[in-house]
Amino acid sequence: QMADPFLYDTGKRSPYGCLGHEVQIEHIKAYVCRPSFFTDKAVIVIHDIFGWMFPDIRYIVDLIAGHGYITICPDFFKGTDPWKTTDHWADFADWLKDHDPMKVDKEADVVLKYLKEQCDAKKIGIVGFSWGGMAVHHLMLKNPQLTAGVSLYGIIRDSEERYNLLNPTFFIFGEKDHTISHDQITLLEEKLKQYCKAAYKIKVYPGQVHGFAELKPEDMKPADKPYIEEARKDMIDWIKMFI
Hints:
This is Carboxymethylenebutenolidase homolog. It comes from Pterocles gutturalis (yellow-throated sandgrouse). GO terms for molecular function: hydrolase activity. By secondary structure, the protein is of the alpha/beta class. The protein contains six helices and eight strands, in the order E-E-E-H-E-H-H-E-H-E-E-H-E-H. It has an eight-stranded mixed β-sheet with strand order 1-2-4-3-5-6-7-8, sandwiched between helices. Helix 1 links the parallel strand 3 and strand 4.
């Protein structure tokens, strides 16, 4: 029996009126939000298991765009169904086989091409949450076009080649995340020390559960709010440092 990875109810969310718009890029739909002024800096946001249309992830896209970046969240599930709150966790492993966060390279290339050719982006960063955090971990090891990355609570697997990051990467975790053990975070730290030549940072936020950093203000619990805001500020600061 797999534990439900979200300790809060993802079904009960306040609605969100998005600031951006949807576009079609080759075989992928994407949600894009641009700042009001021209910029050649962009950020790709990789959604979690709930997909590119989930209100929380669109809120994050708009938030990053507000800091002066062309921000895009592509549908990395390519039109297939995201995980739904009504789905059963017993089926999660099977669902994951068809939604592998390590098989995002083709879609990432399509989006990078779009940002460079259609949006004149010169520097491109990447941010991913949960499933997307694993995808960021993978892409920061494979794709030198990504200037900097932030991986938020991406589950870590033990393997030698996963730790020589090409460019600066920041790993954000919640202390009470029961999908990621403290041992895994310690292991990541040891492997990064051993193999990583790029700048990196790991930070664990007290008392926070899996998925904590995506909540919209009205969905936050008062005790968690300072940590959520801190994690988001840290995320933006990391991007600003390199992009």
